[in-house]
């Protein structure tokens, strides 16, 4: 079998840093050690050999707000690989009333073009007996063990507390992990209507309509509901101190709650919405919106302290033309920003180079923690013999300025335009296939495979101590008084 050896680099994992060569055969890592030989040699001198990134949160070719997100599984995964990310987890999104299994079929069809491996989360956008029953098939037969709930997007994707509690209990039975988009959709809808009525219709009003408190409230509510349902919880795109605070408090009380800041929220702030140019501001409209420096600091601290575990993108890319659907009414601006190819270089530049994160923490939050939480470790997220050869050979000396012209993403701008990056892939390997070589993109459409994820056996054991104390028990009594006296 043809072998590839990554030679002369320093292996960096979530817990170790050491000099070693890494040998790859048949798409997996077969040997790690000194002086390895092989058919093809990749020179990693001066580089860090790390597990390829996993982006746990993307929306590729997703029908949303009257259009489709522009990056599909081909351009999206090409963008991912160019920035060192070797696996994406996308959301299969049934429209309300649609079968979950039908939605998976749609996502199966779209994803045949993927350049790197991928997995799916299932969105619960409505509730009923059919959904209850299909959830079991999704977990048992479709390899999907995570269910996303939108607490916002009222009248479209939003589920209420009744539906969410029902679905969380079902997740607990099935060994599945619920995810939440935590914003109070009722309050957002009222604020949107009020802002429009006052003539506040520009993209800046998008941010006014989604203050940090709507996120803090919803995050705390979802955590409490998850605890009552007896299931852990994963909070997507944690963007505010209030949401982070709720997650910290829950973890301190023994609950398994995970928080996922986005690279956008870590590095871009709400001053973007004050820009004089409508297009500039609208291109940055996403939910939750960018926040101020206080919230950014909180997110960075959470990553360092371990109260937030994962950095994602929520990659959901719309062109300027699509953003202009919302001229005159900010509620019609398609929500979403890109970030797939910039997540790792931006986090390295703003995290590792600045000293906010160690290299090992960088690997943990971009790959290993995600693989563990989503139950694909150590197939993914590891430099270990037997693991998939999803590897990034990271050159800390490579520099570039981010521009839309040089990006892989199919849209016409980049929210990180002009940022100076230090640290980029010299090579990216996806199951052994070299897809970035000395900065040159050599992806192969259709190379990516679906990664099935098993249910979690620990889910039902994850109750907090509060649950045990308040578990209802019927009290045995004597001397019951006659009624009506
Ligand atoms: N937020 C976005 O900005 N886009 C896609 C969905 C979401 O929750
Ligand atoms: Zn969301
Ligand atoms: Zn300008
Ligand atoms: Zn999302």
| Strand order across the largest sheet | 3-2-7-17-18-19-20
Oligomer description: single chain
As a percent range, the share of strand residues is 15-25%
Total number of strands: 20
Averaged pLDDT: 95
Shape: globular
Protein name: Dihydropyrimidinase
Family: Belongs to the metallo-dependent hydrolases superfamily. Hydantoinase/dihydropyrimidinase family.
Pfam family, one: Amidohydro_1
EC number: 3.5.2.2
Report what the structure shows.
The chain has 15 helices and 20 strands. The chain is α/β, with parallel strands linked by helices and 485 residues long. Helix 3 runs parallel beside helix 4 (161-174), helix 4 packs across helix 7 (212-229) and helix 7 runs parallel beside helix 8 (241-252). Residues 460-469 have low confidence and may be disordered. One zinc ion (ZN) binds next to loops.
Structure, briefly:
The chain is α/β, with parallel strands linked by helices. The chain is 32% helix and 21% strand.
């Amino acid at each position: 079998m043809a072998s590839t050896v990554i030679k002369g680099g320093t292996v960096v994992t979530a817990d170790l840093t050491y000099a070693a060569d890494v040998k790859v055969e048949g798409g997996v890592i077969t040997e790690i050690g000194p002086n390895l030989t092989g058919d093809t040699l990749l020179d990693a001198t001066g580089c860090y050999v790390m597990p390829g990134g996993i982006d746990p949160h993307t929306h590729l070719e997703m029908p949303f707000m009257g259009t489709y997100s522009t990056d599909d599984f081909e351009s999206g995964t090409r963008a991912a690989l160019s920035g060192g990310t070797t696996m994406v987890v996308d959301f299969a999104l049934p429209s309300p009333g649609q079968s979950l299994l039908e939605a998976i079929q749609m996502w199966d069809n779209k994803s045949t073009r993927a350049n790197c491996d991928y997995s799916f989360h299932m969105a619960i956008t409505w509730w009923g007996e059919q959904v209850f029953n299909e959830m079991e098939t999704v977990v048992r037969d479709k390899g999907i063990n995570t269910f996303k709930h939108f607490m916002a997007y009222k009248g479209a994707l939003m589920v209420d507390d009744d539906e969410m509690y029902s679905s969380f209990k079902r997740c607990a039975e099935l060994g599945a992990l619920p995810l939440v988009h935590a914003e109070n959709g009722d309050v957002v809808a009222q604020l949107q209507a009020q802002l429009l009525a006052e003539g506040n219709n520009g993209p800046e009003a998008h941010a006014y309509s989604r203050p940090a408190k709507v996120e803090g409230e919803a995050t705390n509510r979802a955590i409490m509901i998850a605890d009552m349902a007896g299931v852990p919880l994963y909070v997507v795109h944690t963007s505010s101190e209030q949401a982070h605070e709720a997650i910290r408090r829950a973890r301190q009380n023994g609950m398994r709650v995970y928080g996922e800041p986005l690279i956008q929220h870590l590095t871009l702030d709400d001053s973007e919405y004050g820009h004089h140019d409508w297009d500039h501001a609208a291109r940055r409209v996403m939910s939750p919106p960018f926040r101020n420096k206080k919230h950014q600091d909180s997110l960075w601290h959470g990553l360092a302290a371990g109260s937030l575990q994962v950095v994602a993108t929520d990659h959901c890319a719309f062109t300027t033309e699509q953003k202009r659907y919302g001229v005159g009414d900010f509620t019609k601006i398609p929500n979403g920003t890109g970030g797939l190819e910039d997540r790792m270089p931006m986090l390295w530049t703003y995290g590792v180079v600045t000293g906010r994160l160690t290299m090992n923490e960088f690997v943990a939050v971009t790959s290993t923690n995600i693989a563990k939480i989503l139950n694909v470790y150590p197939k993914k997220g590891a430099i270990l013999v037997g693991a998939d050869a999803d590897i990034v050979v990271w050159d800390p000396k490579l520099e570039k300025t981010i521009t839309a012209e040089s990006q892989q993403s199919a849209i016409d701008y980049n929210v990180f335009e002009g940022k100076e990056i230090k640290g980029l892939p010299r090579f990216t390997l996806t199951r052994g296939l070299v897809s970035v070589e000395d900065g040159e993109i050599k992806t192969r459409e259709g190379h990516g495979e679906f990664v099935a994820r098993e249910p979690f056996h620990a889910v039902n054991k994850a109750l907090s101590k509060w649950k045990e104390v308040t578990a209802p028990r019927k009290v045995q009594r004597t001397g019951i008084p006659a009624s009506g006296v």
